[in-house]
Every structure is written in structure tokens, then in C-alpha cells.
Amino acid sequence: MLRIFKKILTTGVVTEKIKAPKDAELEQLGIELKTHIDKKFSGSIAIRQVDAGSCNGCELEIHALNNPFYDIERFGIHFVASPRHADVLLVTGPVSRHMQTALLRTYEATPNPKWVVAAGDCAACGGEFGVSYASCGVVSNVIPVDLTIPGCPPTPLALMKGLLGLISAKT
Amino acid sequence: MSSLNWTEDFLSELSADMTVAESAISSDVTLWQIDNYAWQRFAEIALRQKLRWAAGWAEQVQDRFLVNACFEKQGKYILLRTGVDASNPELPSQATVYPAANRSERHTQDMFGIRFSGHPDNRRWTRHQAWIEHNYPLRKDFPVQGTPVGITAPDMHYPFIKSHGAGTYEIPVGPVHAGIIEPGHFRFQAVGELILNLEERLGYVHKGIEKIAEGREPESLARLAGRISGDTTVGHCWAACMAMEQAAGIVVPARAALIRGILAERERVANHMGDIGAICNDVAFVFAQMQFTRLRELWLRTNATVFGHRLLMDSIVPGGVACELSDESCTLIKKELVELKNELNEVILALDLNSSLEDRLYTAGFLSEEIAAAFGTVGYVGRASGQDFDVRRDAPYAPYDQVTVKVALENQGDIASRLWVRYKEIRASLRLIGEFIERLVDGDIRTEWQTPSAGAEGLGIVDGWRGEIITYVRFEAGNKIARFYPRDPSQLNWPALEKLVLNNIVPDFPVCNKSVNGSYSGNDL
User: Fold this and answer.
1) Which of B28, B255, B382, B476 could be joined to B377 by an S-S link, Cβ 3.0–4.6 Å?
2) Mapping DSSP to helix (H, G, I), strand (E, B) and coil, where does residue B10 land?
3) What pLDDT was estimated at residue A22?
4) At what angle do helices B509-516 and B254-281 cross, to 10 degrees?
């Protein structure tokens, strides 16, 4: 146990503050995000992530949003286990035809008002997969999309920027 | 160790039952062609000779289907092939002998319409409702756009195994799961908390990768291969490029091979760190999750600085690599290696002495050596259950042929074993990265591409972070791909999950699943 405490203490808080320009950008982004979320959502926004056919690259970077460097929860953004709890659906991948109904049902299960963010090139513009016998292509072919975040995969910083864009556009 | 010339003995044993036409596809791969009636017989003799079934796929050549199976023993691979007429495509099943071939044959059945007679479970597998029965997407007359009508219906009537009896109940989970993970369906039968049976239903992220690969040129195929499974972008891209380079008869420059090695080991370290953290998180030990996601983030940032991409996508290209490695970058990486080793020493000691982790991870999710061998499990799942195999050591390719690869091995077969194998692999990878940097020679990082002749084929076999990847490529005229088949290690490891969760409690499923961490995308293609 002592070892754990020692490691925690010596590691300290790595969550990024205003240091390098890049970190400042991140911090600035977070503060803006927080301001908007505070105004519109009383300080909290719930995201349900849906992989509708991605290669799992986008999921890796979405996961990174919760690592101690980005710690997106400090800005009031958290990921929830059910669409019933969500304000935002964060959808990745081209929508595979085998996931089409599942995505539609997830969308229907999300209470209004709701927004859809299509994250990653596949979700935003079709990426390497496009439309085929197995793929419906971009997310907007299946459900209405409010915002796209390009990138293959989008970096955690790009994802945060995107979410900010969504929230500022809607407030 | 028995003689490496096991093929001689094996051929002589086969000669009583069948004729084997032997030819070389390349210097590394030997092709054995047999008559289709002997397909199952071959498997029976192969099993007796302790060959491992490693991959299976088909392709259409005019009005015939060529059916392939890849076997391995002591690092030597055999590509077995037979032909069937498209008018009546039927073949005796090898899945009756090798459980590992089960889902692969079901995939071939769905995609080509080849019947495997005697197959123990010939339900559809990859096909849900996106195309109708008796339509086969990988036949040449099936248009890549298919004939979709409206919204694809949910796959409601898949005949799952049912449980009967007082007190048993079923839990359907997915395809949309509670976390940030890929989609798939799990059907549990349980009594109380105890799992009686688990049936996986995958195929939800089937994107038609094999079909949309056809007609692509090498660079375009490499990009697609890098997106078969995002966490294995280096591994799949390397395997696809290796296959294409073999078909084209070109050799990658020594410097490029070393950089490929560094990329692949960096991918392994990043994923293993993520997994160790996630396994601990699934038993609510958040300290480890936070430490390992922190270390992983630092590692990915170095990737971005040195190679221009956090996950290293598109770093490997046909003929070499896309990115130079400067002396400055080498210094940066070497410094990082030292720092990470020190960090790991501290974090791992805290993990190792933690009794609540021991309580949850030891003996849970047990996979016996026998079952691991029967399903041909590879990578850390196999190595945690005594399967002592690693392509890098047993069938070494450049740059692994220049170094000694130490293969981590455990035989307890539980979640803890799979965690420790990952940790040992991280240590081994850090050493390998250091060695590759030391050996880095001056020179080109890319060889000029040469158009392969029509019909040229290649088999790329590499050890990705999840284990052995086997990728088959055939070219047609004009530098275009006629057939592409990537076998992700997950295809062999997924069935093992159904077995290792038995007699565990339902709440331990997430950690059991994470300890295997199969790729849904790599499996569904």
C-alpha cells in the first residue's frame, strides 16, 4: 500500500495546465467548453459513444480523453453506459449495414434534445470504406448529424475542439 | 527437438492416401496442392503430426474456387490448396478435426457459398441481414455495392443455443455495449451468477474489407490494411506489404526493415500498457489504470513527434517505410526507454504486492493448455497457456533474424498469466527497440516498386502485438489486387473466450474479455 501512495505522490498531478503553447490551447479549450456546458447543461454533459463499424482506432483516442493528461471529466463531460442517460451520441466508423438498426435504435433511445457527433474520417466522409454491400458509409446516411470531427483517428485534442464547436454552435 | 525436416516424414505418411504436388510460391512459402476429396484426410494426418491449423480462405479463379489452409509446425509453414468447381462447390470439412477451422469455414461458406460437408456447426457466421441467403459477396459476379434495400433488418432469428431447466436464464448483451468498445453480441446462459455457457455472435462490424480490397493498387491496399484493426495498424500493414513485396519479388532495404521492427514493437508496448491498465480497471484497481494510461499517453506523444502519427498509421508502405528516423529521434527514443523502464519497475511492484488484485486475477478465466492448443490460440493468450510460439523467433523475418527474441511464456492460463505475459513482452520489446536502434544502418528507407506479374501471390506472416498475423495477396494484371485475405490473431483467440469464461461468474466477464482483448473489427473484416 505504501508503494502505491508513494507512486501517487511522486507522480503528482500530470493533468495539463498552462505550460507549453499546446497545453495552453488544451486548457483554453477546456475552460471554454466548461463555460458553455455550465450555461446550457448546468455543468454537465453526458456522452454515449457508439462504434457503428469503426476499426477501433477512434475508440483508442476517445479512451485517451479520460487519461490523466486530458481528464475530460473535469470540464463536465462524461461518458455514460446507456443512450437513455445521454445528451450526445459520439458515433465512429462507417455505419456497417449490420449495425444500421442498432444505431437507429440507439438514436431513438436517446432523449431529446440530443446531438450527434460523427467522429473520425469514416464517420465524417466515408474514409477508406465508403459505401458498399456491407457499409452504409457516413453516419449522416443513417441518422442526422450535428457535427463532424475529421481525423484518422482524430487526436484527443481534435475531439475536445470538436465538442467545443458543437456546444458553442448550439448555445 | 525433433528434426526440422518434418515435412519429409509427413509427405511420406501422406503418400499412402493422396498425391501432393509441391511448388514454391516464394523462398519462404511452400505450396502443397491436393485433390479435394483428400481435404479432410490431410487434416487428420496433420493433427497426428501435431501441425497447427493457422488460417483458411478461398478465392475464385474463373469458374473454380481455390480453397486454402495454412498449417505450421516448428516455424515452417505449409500452404495447402485444393480446387472445387463453382457449379457444385463442396469440400469435406477440416473443422471436424481442427476446431480452429470452424469459424473460418463458416466465413468461407457465407462469402463464397462453398459447403463444408460434415461441418459440426454450419450456421451462418459473417452473414447477418445485409445480403440475402444464396448471395455470396466474394464471388466475382457479386457487385461491390450489392443490392441493399432500405434499412438492413436486425438479425433477429439467428439460432442461438438455448438453455432449458429450472433456474437457468439467458443474458443477451450487445451489440452496443456499455463502455467505449466495439460492437458484438454475447449470449450467456447462467445459473445464479455462474456462467454455464457463452455464445459469441460477431460480424456486426463487417465492412467488406476483402471485397473492397479487390482492384486496389499496392499503396491503397496498404492503407486499407492499416485500418483492419486500428490498434494493429502496424502489424496488418506490415503483413500486407510483406505479402505484396513477396509477390513483386522485391526486398526491403535493411534500414527500412529495422524501422519497421521499431514501429511494430512500439505498437506492442502501447497496446500492452493500455491492456494492463484496463484489466486492473475492470477489477476496480484504478491506480494501475491511471498510471498505465499516463505512460501510454507519453509513449503515443513520442510516436507523434518521431513518426508523425500517434498510432503509427501509414508508416509502413509497400517497399519500405514512409518515415525517416533521425539521430535526434533515436536519442529521444533511447532516453524514453530508460525512463519507462524505471517507471514500470515502480508501478509493477505496487501491482505485484496487491492482495485485492491477486484475489481477482489469479485462477479467474482459466484456459487450459489443451484447449489453447485445440483452438490454435496465438499471441499472449496462447503464451499464457503454454503455447510456446512466436513468429519473430520461430519463423524470423527481417529485422528479427538479426536479434535474439525472448518469448514470454506462462502456463497457469489465468487472467494473471495473460497480464504477466504482456508485462514480460513489454520488457522484451523495450530491449528490442534499443537493439534495433543500435543496429540502424544508413541507406534507403524504400525500394522502388515493381509491378508483379498477373497471378503472382504472396503470404505475409508477422507477429503483431496480439500474435501471428497471416495475410494472403494475389495480384491480377496492371498492379491490381485480385484477392486479399488478412487473418487477424483475434480470429483464433475469440473462440477461446467462450471456453475460459465457463464456471466464472457473470460479473467477471468484462475482465475475462479484456484479458483476451480480441479485435471485433479484425475478426469481422
Assistant:
1) B382
2) helix
3) 52
4) 170
Contacts of B207 in chain A (CB under 8 A): 53, 94, 96, 129, 132, 134-135
Which of A9-23, A80-94, B266-280 has the least mean pLDDT? A9-23
The Cα B83–Cα B65 span in angstroms is 6
Q: What is the pLDDT of residue B292?
A: 96
Contact at CB, B181 and A59, closer than 8 angstroms: yes
Helix (H) / strand (E) containing A147: strand A147-149
Buried-exposed string A120-139: b where 16+ CB fall within 10 A, e elsewhere: bbbbbebbbbbbbbbbbbbb
The helix/strand/coil state of B287 is helix
| A81 and B CB contact within 8 Å | yes
- For residues B363-376, b (16+ Cβ closer than 10 Å) or e, as one string? ebbbbeeebbbbbb
B293 with A66: Cβ contact below 8 A: yes
Half-sphere exposure of B30 (CA within 13 A, CB side): 13
Cell representation of residue B369: 493448455
Could you say which of A79, A97, A102 has the minimum Cβ distance to residue B180?
A79
Mean pLDDT of B113-131: 94
Each residue's pLDDT tens digit, B493-505 = 999 999 999 999 9
Give the C-alpha distances (Å, rounded to integers) separating A58 from A65, A91, B181, B495: 11, 10, 10, 25
Residue type, B521: S
For cell 450555461, name the residue: A39
- pLDDT of res. B451: 95
The answer to whether residue B2 scores a pLDDT higher than 70 is no
Question: Comparing C-alpha atoms, which of B430, B390, B433, B432 is closest to residue B408?
Answer: B390
B81-96 pLDDT, tens digit per residue, is: 999 999 999 999 999 9
- Residue B312 DSSP label: -
Whether chain B has a CB inside 8 Å of the CB on A151: the answer is no
- Which of B220, B142, B138 lies closest to B481 in space, CA to CA? B220
- Taking alpha carbons only, the member of B276, B223, B520 closest to residue A56 is B520
Tell how far CA B102 is from the center of its chain.
15
Going from the N-terminus, what domains does chain B have, and what CATH number goes with each?
Answer: 6-117 (3.30.460.80), 168-201 (no CATH), 209-524 (1.10.645.10)
Q: Would you call B523 an interface residue with chain A, using a CB distance cutoff of 8 Å? A: no
Q: Give the one of A60, A97, A132 whose C-beta lies nearest to B211's C-beta.
A: A132
Q: Smallest Cα–Cα separation from B104: which of B494, B508, B414?
A: B494
What secondary structure letter does DSSP report for A68?
T
Helix (H, G, I), strand (E, B) or coil at B331: helix
C-alpha grid cell, residue A48:
454515449
d(CA B269, CA B434): 13
**For chain A, which domains are there?**
2-170 (3.40.50.12280)
Distance CA B125, CA B202 (A): 8
Give buried/exposed letters for B266-279 (b at 16+ CB in 10 A, else e): bbbbbbbbbbbbbb
Q: What are phi and psi of B226, to 5 degrees?
A: -70, -5
Lowest mean pLDDT among A67-81, B91-105, B202-216, B470-484: A67-81
Q: What is the mean pLDDT of residues B282-292?
A: 92
Percent of chain B's residues with pLDDT above 70: 99
Rounded to 10°, the helix B509-516/B415-439 angle is: 30
The x, y and z cell numbers of residue B300, run together, are 503515443
- DSSP per position, A52-63: SS--SHHHHHHH
Please tell me the predicted confidence (pLDDT) of residue A1. 78
Residue B24: half-sphere exposure toward Cβ, Cα within 13 Å: 4
Q: Which residues pair with B80 in a beta bridge?
A: B32, B69
Residue A6: what pLDDT?
87
Supply the DSSP symbol for B138: T
Please, are residues B409 and B379 in contact by the beta-carbon 8 Å criterion?
A: no
